[in-house]
Design a protein that fits this description.
Layout (H helix, E strand, L loop, with lengths): L24 E6 L6 E5 L3 E5 L9 E6 L2 E5 L7 E6 L6 E2 L13 E4 L2 E4 L10 E4 L6 E5 L8 E6 L2 E5 L5 E5 L6 E5 L8 E6 L2 E5 L5 E6 L6 E5 L14 E5 L1
Antiparallel strand pairs: 1-2, 1-20, 3-4, 4-5, 5-6, 7-8, 8-9, 9-10, 11-12, 12-13, 13-14, 15-16, 16-17, 17-18, 19-20
The chain binds calcium ion (4 copies).
Amino acid sequence: MRRRIGMTVLIAAALVGIAAGPASARTWNEREGCSDVTYGLSTDTPIVGDWNGDGSFDELGVVRSGHWYLGTDYCFPSTQTSFGYGLASDKPLPGDWNGDGTDTAGVVRGNQWLLRNSNTPGSSNLSFSFGRSTDVFLAGDWDGDGVDTPAVWRSGVFYLRDGAGVVRSFGYGRSTDIPIVGDWDGNGIDTIGVKRGQAFYLSDNNSTAALVIGYGLSGLAPSVGKFGTFSSDFSHARDSVGTVQ
Ligand SMILES: [Ca+2]
Ligand SMILES: [Ca+2]
Ligand SMILES: [Ca+2]
Ligand SMILES: [Ca+2]
């Protein structure tokens, strides 16, 4: 049973290869997972994905100046693998780009998407341009075929692109919200949501909010993943929310 709720997890900085410095530990809180999980540094870009491809729970990770550290767990993460991919100025964005069940590295540079199908150093397996360099970049499985494809968010409007390059756009939320993506109902299709203050507005149909959840502190970055759940069946089939600070 992996229901390890509310435990403080102190991971030695050495586990992720951190030199001594002024940055504090990054702290993750997961609404349906674990609380006060520390992994990485506050200056790292937090990421979540199914790095081990077990189709079950997601694992935490961070990207630091083009170096990726992928954790073993969402609750007690140590580093299972690390590698360099992309530049320090890139926006890291992992996803399952080939539909094999494992999430792997990707970055957006300007509006160039450079996606890799393994968590190893190397060149991109897939590259294209989409969106504007000032957009917020997201990815998800919009059609449920197992392959993640891009989205961008621009001032309250989502632009979702499918595998064939067709783009759907719609407004949701406010221009001051933080956009997120997840499979909130566990049907295999990712949909959008936003974080506004302490509230998460989660839509299952990219139109109306199916669920509004207050969680965490206003101002904290959102995280999304299959972290487990408080429900009796302990289902890992759907995404839940958390915060990172
Ligand atoms: Ca996993
Ligand atoms: Ca994959
Ligand atoms: Ca897809
Ligand atoms: Ca869904």
